[in-house]
Specification:
Blueprint (H helix, E strand, L loop, with lengths): L1 E5 L3 H12 L3 E5 L7 H6 L2 E2 L12 E4 L4 H8 L13 E4 L5 H11 L3 E3 L6 H6 L3 E6 L1 H6 L1 H4 L4 E4 L4 H31 L4 H10 L7 H5 L14 H14 L7 H18 L16
Parallel strand pairs: 1-2, 1-4, 2-3, 4-5, 5-6, 7-8
Antiparallel strand pairs: 6-7
């Protein structure tokens, strides 16, 4: 099977690397040159443009940041790419149900939504949870690709379902990170040192096992290294709020979204979401 990955940021590179490791032929394109160098060394064929896919490409994976980027790449000026005709189009990005609807209109039964419930490192190891929603044919024909991952949730024929489930899952993580960040800030202002706060997180039964617990280490890293930035967090929480009816209010979610927006304005937009612990501490 031969695929192409469009967008070689953290998540796109993880997908490309995973498929290369499992024997899939992989092509890749990225808007910023140089992103593919390490993957080329592993066997990836770098593409000069999104339209340069090989004739025998089975599926094109799109992994860019938001609705605007996905639609500009997959349906430029509102039209499907003629070079992508006859291939399955798999979008792994977290985007709105409206964006999925436009992709279905453009590519019909060849479109598949497949957002991820995991960090890029888990994707690269094959330990990610993939959500699948789209035509039965797409889900079945690409089965050899899904077999490279530990867990796949088949959500049926409606792509919007995958968007909703992904947003709800991400919402839980982002809201918790915002709360735990304020816990650290309050603790510091009360005179507790970081070592004691880190020990509390490690020992507390109120902090769930898994990815969230591991991420909290980033609060105590002054560089807040990671891959999920506060602007992306605010984007996802905004999409989550948009799922609800207009006459409902969700003050906790709105406050978390606004906090991620504010810390980004204060100069922490290019670090991991754990940089929210710097709220009120402008970066110089």
């Amino acid at each position: 099977m031969r695929i192409a990955v469009m967008g070689l940021g953290f998540m796109g590179s993880a997908f490309a690397g995973r498929f290369l490791e499992t024997g899939t032929e992989v092509q890749g394109w990225n808007r910023t040159p140089g992103k593919a160098d390490g993957l080329v060394a592993e066997g990836l064929t770098e593409l000069a443009s999104p339209d340069a896919v090989a004739d025998d490409t089975d599926a094109i994976f799109v992994s860019v940041s938001d609705d605007k980027s996905v639609l500009a790449l997959a349906v430029p000026e509102g039209n499907p790419r003629s070079a992508w005709a006859g291939r399955y189009i798999v979008v792994t990005s977290t985007v709105s149900a409206d964006a999925y609807a436009k992709l279905v209109e453009a590519y019909g039964d060849r479109f598949l939504a497949s957002p991820v419930l995991a960090a890029p490192a888990a994707v690269r190891k094959g330990a990610a949870i993939l959500l699948l929603a789209g035509s039965q044919g797409a889900r079945t024909d690409l089965a050899p690709l899904w077999e490279q991952f530990s867990t796949v949730l088949d959500l049926g024929e409606t792509p919007a379902t995958a968007s909703i489930i992904k947003l709800l899952n991400t919402h839980m993580m982002l809201a918790n990170v915002a709360v735990y960040a304020e816990t650290v800030r309050i603790g510091r202002e009360a005179g507790v040192d970081d070592k004691a706060l880190a020990q509390m997180f490690d020992a507390s039964p109120t902090v769930p096992e898994g990815g969230l617990r591991a991420r909290l280490e980033g609060f105590f890293d002054p560089d807040h290294k990671g891959w999920f930035s506060s602007p992306l967090a605010a984007k996802d929480l905004g999409l989550t709020l948009a799922l609800a009816s207009s006459d409902s209010t969700f003050p906790v979610t709105a406050a978390a979204r606004d906090s991620y927006l504010q810390v980004a304005k204060e100069g922490w937009a290019d670090v991991d979401i754990t940089g929210i612990v710097e709220y009120g501490n402008p970066r110089v």
